[in-house]
Design a protein that fits this description.
- The protein is α+β, with helices and mostly antiparallel strands.
- A hairpin with a 4-residue loop joins strand 3 and strand 4.
Length: about 250
């Protein structure tokens, strides 16, 4: 019965360890994905903001977007990074004015309103992109810059680091479960020693103590351990307990 109960408690503790490690690993994966998405979005925003600065300079000179001959050079300068698929300059209705690479939504984008949002981003299995609106000196929409990141490279980075975190979680579980089993074995041994001491004390109080203390020497580990110190202290106090019990019975007689 006791062994069955101990097995149930041990199984429950093992399940708790597995659940704790699994939950921690899942939270680490979610935190990484969120942090990596923010990192990529900030990088795309830096590229878009740099292009916007050059375009706004031309707008301040009174040039419309269609008349800026240096737009191809401006866009091409930022698309040299291997993970940037396309950089597109659109008008405020979503039509393409100039592009570098292979832009998505070639036919134009349906914006949520007449004036596109100041900044937007899309992260999905097919699209990893960020857009920044360009305003003229009057605060009116003049265009939108869209920077497309390679969705395949983004997904590969997420999957690669997800596998690393899963491997770390599995390694933590492989370490935690043996540590738990070792601790369980140590506590079981201590429970056996303390149980023998408790039984011997009960025998002394009942007047049925023999010459031994009832502790199995094989149950004690080698070295200066807690079990040996407890047993040594009990053995030193045991004669006094026997004498006190015998004296109390003599007084009662």
């Amino acid at each position: 019965m006791k062994s069955s109960l101990a097995a149930k408690i041990g199984g429950a503790m093992a399940l708790i360890i597995v659940a704790a490690v699994s939950t921690t690993t899942l939270l680490n994966i979610l935190r990484f994905e969120e942090a990596y998405q923010d990192f990529v979005a900030r990088r795309l925003h830096v590229i878009a903001a740099d292009i916007r600065r050059d375009v706004v300079f031309g707008l301040d000179l009174g040039l419309p977007l269609q008349a800026m001959d240096n737009l191809p050079d401006i866009l091409a300068r930022h698309i040299r990074a291997g993970d940037i698929e396309a950089i597109t300059l659109r008008d405020c209705e979503g039509g393409i004015v100039e592009s570098a690479g292979t832009p998505r939504h070639v036919g134009g984008v349906a914006w949520p309103s007449r004036k596109p949002p100041e900044t937007w981003r899309r992260f999905s299995d097919e699209t990893v992109a960020l857009g920044v609106r360009i305003d003229n000196a009057l605060g009116e929409c003049a265009g939108v810059i869209t920077v497309d990141h390679s969705a395949a490279l983004y997904a590969a980075a997420i999957d690669r680091n997800r596998l690393r975190l899963l491997a770390a979680g599995a390694a933590g579980m492989l370490v935690a479960i043996p540590a738990f089993l070792l601790a369980r074995r140590l506590f079981r041994r201590r429970r056996a020693v303390l149980g023998a001491i408790e039984a011997n004390m009960a025998a002394i109080l009942a007047g049925a103590a023999d010459g031994g203390d009832g502790i199995d020497p094989q149950a004690l580990p080698s070295g200066d351990t807690i079990e040996r110190m407890v047993v040594e202290a009990y053995r030193n106090a045991r004669p006094a307990m026997i004498a006190a019990t015998a004296s109390g019975k003599d007084d009662q007689a």
